[in-house]
């Protein structure tokens, strides 16, 4: 399944779900030099986490099923292709086998790993329990995939 937003194509290569879980794989061609540099910094520190904002809807419903969920999103890079994987567990049973689902990817975002590490060091020095880092790059849109 393919979806294009803002001249960026994302391909959904796999989607599986049970009553309490869903998982999917997606990929896109890396055309942005800034993204390549950000990913290289993360990979150099063995950080393969991915910030992704999602929505999941039943056919004919406006209720986003993606609330009340714990999720893990990881990635790998091969040549100029970004391969992402998401595994999500719902707090309660939300899916049934006959559901016709539509998955939305609203945002993909990346921090600068060096900036993150520097902010963390400063927070530790200041005995602060929290710190924040702005995203260095975001792709926003509404990549939509009707699950067959």
Search tags:
single chain; 148 residues; alpha+beta; Immunoglobulin-like; five-stranded antiparallel sheet; three-stranded antiparallel sheet; 8 strands; globular
Q: What can you tell me about this protein's structure?
A:
The protein has 148 residues and is of the alpha+beta class. It has one domain (2-146): Immunoglobulin-like. Helices cover 17% and strands 48% of the residues. The chain has helices spanning 33-44, 113-125; strands at residues 2-5, 8-17, 21-29, 51-58, 69-78, 81-90, 101-110, 137-146. The strands form two sheets. Strands 1-2-3-6-5 form a five-stranded antiparallel β-sheet, with no helix packed on it. Strands 4-7-8 form a three-stranded antiparallel β-sheet. Strand 5 (69-78) and strand 6 form a beta hairpin. The radius of gyration is 17 Å and the shape is globular.
Question: Topology of this structure?
Answer:
Blueprint: E1 2-5, E2 8-17, E3 21-29, H1 33-44, E4 51-58, E5 69-78, E6 81-90, E7 101-110, H2 113-125, E8 137-146
Antiparallel strand pairs: 1-2, 2-3, 3-6, 4-7, 5-6, 7-8
Terminal CA distance reads 9 Å
List segments where confidence is low: pLDDT < 50 over at least 5 consecutive residues.
Answer: none
Which structural class matches the secondary elements?
A: alpha+beta
What is the CATH fold-level name? Immunoglobulin-like
Radius of gyration: 17 Å
Architecture (CATH level 2) name:
Sandwich
Q: What is the mean pLDDT? A: 92
Helicity, as a percent range: 10-25%
- Largest beta sheet: what is the strand line-up? 1-2-3-6-5
Report strand %: over 45%
Reported for the largest beta sheet, the result is:
5 strands, antiparallel
Global shape: globular
Helices and strands, in order, run as EEEHEEEEHE
